[in-house]
Specification:
The protein is of the alpha/beta class. It has a single domain (about 10-100), classed as 2-Layer Sandwich (Nucleotidyltransferase, domain 5). It is about 20% helix and about 25% strand. The protein has helices spanning about 45-55, 70-80, and strands spanning about 10-15, 15-25, 35-40, 60-65, 105. A 5-stranded mixed beta sheet has the order 3-2-1-4-5, covered by helices on one side.
Length: about 110
């Protein structure tokens, strides 16, 4: 059985910017899903603006793609915010994770 997430986003991270695509239900009952793509600068202010936008849209699942170590600032500033999640050690996602941040489902993947 396939899992369908109602509010999700995909993030493509590069050195200069972060491109984000969201898919959320349309406004109003019976309307089609809507998608939106935005580009944010890869600076702290841009990443915080991106986080606020994702939270405002109610996004709960995010897939990230990055080259090298450019994913680290996005991960630490957005998903492991000290104000929203307790400090943890080890891998960011385990089978028994129970983070308080609304955007908590990060699934590491490997290109094949």
């Amino acid at each position: 059985m396939d899992v369908v997430y109602e509010r999700c986003a995909g993030i493509d991270i590069s050195k200069a910017d972060v491109k984000v695509c969201i898919r959320v239900p349309g406004r109003g009952k019976g309307t089609r899903r809507r998608g939106e793509v935005r580009t944010f600068p890869a600076l702290t202010s841009g990443l915080l603006e991106m986080r606020d936008w994702l939270l405002a849209e109610g996004v709960t699942v995010v897939g990230m793609e990055a080259t090298g170590s450019y994913w680290k600032p996005v991960f630490y500033l957005i998903f492991v915010s000290a104000a929203r999640a307790p400090r943890r050690t080890g891998r960011p996602l385990t089978r028994s994770h129970n983070w308080q941040d609304p955007i908590s489902h990060i699934r590491p993947s490997r290109a094949t």
